Automatic annotation (TrEMBL):
Residues 210-309 form the HTH araC/xylS-type domain. One of its GO terms (molecular function) is sequence-specific DNA binding. It comes from the Bacteria. InterPro entries: AraC_XylS_family_regulators, Homeodomain-like_sf, HTH_AraC, Tscrpt_reg_AraC-type_HTH. It holds the Pfam family HTH_18. It comes from Chelatococcus reniformis. This is Transcriptional regulator. Keywords: DNA-binding, Transcription, Transcription regulation.
Amino acid sequence: MEPSTVSSAHFSTGQFDAWRESIAVVFDVEPPVQGGALPFDANVEAFQLADMVVTDARLGEQRYVRSPARSRSDGMDHFVFNLYRTGGWRAQTAQGEFKGRAGQVSVLDLARDLISDEPTSDLVSLFVPRFLVEDSLPNLSGLHGRAPTGPHAALLADYIDLLARRLPTLPSGHEQALSRATCDMLAACLQPSLVGLEAARPGLELVLLRRAKRFINAHLASAELNSDGVCQAVGVSRRTLYRLFEEEGGVQHYIQSSRLARIRLILVDPNDTRRISEIAGAFGFSRSDHFARAFKHQFGLSPSEARGPPHRDGGEPGKAFPFRSFGAQDFENWIRALPV
């Protein structure tokens, strides 16, 4: 019997609408700005590497969009590192317009808005939960839409390329160690590009904000979760905490939005068969009408519409969604299974 390899899946389509549906969990995609009837192909190999996901893709020309409203509401709080073997990008963010070319690595913060126009490309993408890198790279959001430069950046590009090429034949059992090594490489290679950003945005406040968010997300099901508890856990005054969360609409708004995002993750889990009211109650929503209105306002659909399909594949509750040949719904479940 041949040894098992790193868990993987494959997705391929020649239809733009099918690709749009499959990637909608992360981005809204649009045809190229110039329009036309250009042929489109998407071919994606995906690998589960402990708490991160690596994709090796060949994609047709398109525009990626994350609007401000979507960035605030859909619960995608990860970083994406794209190595462009061919192609490139032109990104528009709140901080300006940035361009990149083949051989470079772009940094995307899914918690922030973005428009990126991309030609036909061969690229490797690392989907990395924020908590894996936030301590070593507290200012990483400052690179959103940009490409790090210099010899360290070139070394990172070489590493990501080699990782993607080796993953199909790597034996299983070492995913956690390889994930940690990849995070260490990201930290070592990106830190030089962040030095100049620290003077523009105080690193301490970013660390405090991420620490507060981590505490909140670890206690979303606690009835005792409130501003005072967050202040005590992080070691800041109420005034400082309120200032840290100004761009989030306030502490209580962030808590409610995070609870709703966590509930949505649970609803798309086919292994969780609890009633919607029971799930909502576990996160402090005692009134179903208030919960339904808040959920619809944040996501644009009702809780029942967001509910995933019933049990399948004989999976055990709480396990990560299995990797296999996937359609649009499987891909959405797979991305939503990434920890936040």
